[in-house]
Amino acid sequence: MHRHGYSWGSNCVTLYTDNLILRTVETSDIEEVARMWEFEKGRISTEEAQKAIDYMQSNHEKNKPGNIYHLCFAVFEKGNGHIIGWCGLDGKIAGKLHIFYLIEKDYRNKGYATQCAEKLLSYAFDEAHVSFVNGGCDKDNIASYKVMTKIGMRENGYEANGDPLFFINDEIYRENGTRR
Q: Which of 26, 98, 123, 154 registers the highest number of CB atoms within 10 A of its CB?
């Protein structure tokens, strides 16, 4: 089923960009989750992958309009059945909703993180009706810094270690006319 928005309580949510499919995972994705859950460290067991799927699905059930607890999407390149990364919105810390994205090295520098981030903001403000989204990145991660600024997030201070923090609210999002 092709869903462009989020159906609250739904087990599978799918969002589309020009080149990507962002989709919540299901048990049928277990081999891909095992391969990619900690892709920078290596494959995990199918038992660990099932725990990761159960964890993500449990978190998704806690999402409500205006309040995202945690929403994690597997990133697929259109026409490719393999997970190439992860992205989502994490609101587990009260009063904060963080955007995140992580793309496998072979698929970087293609604009995919920007497409993910733009679609996540569109979802956050247009579908989930949240009031703000926070972001941050390692001070040495220039690519991620550029993604945050490109999608219209504003620098909003620094962590103690110098890592930049970002912020965007619904008003700024609408003023920016961020691509959707």
A: 123
User: pLDDT tens, 17-54?
Assistant: 999 999 999 999 999 999 999 888 889 999 999 999 99
Which residue's structure tokens are 């059945």? 81
Average confidence score pLDDT of the chain: 90
- Partner residues linked to 98 by β-bridges: 90, 134
Q: How far apart are CA 102 and CA 86, in angstroms?
A: 5
What predicted TM-score, i.e. pTM, was given to this entire model? 0.89
Q: Parse the chain into domains and list their residue ranges.
A: 14-176
Give the residue ranges of DSSP H helices in 8-111.
30-36, 46-61
Who contacts 11 (Cβ-Cβ below 8 Å, separation ≥6)? 24, 26, 57, 60
CATH number of 14-176: 3.40.630.30
pLDDT of amino acid 177: 78
Q: Which residues touch 43 (CB under 8 Å, ≥6 apart)?
A: 34, 35
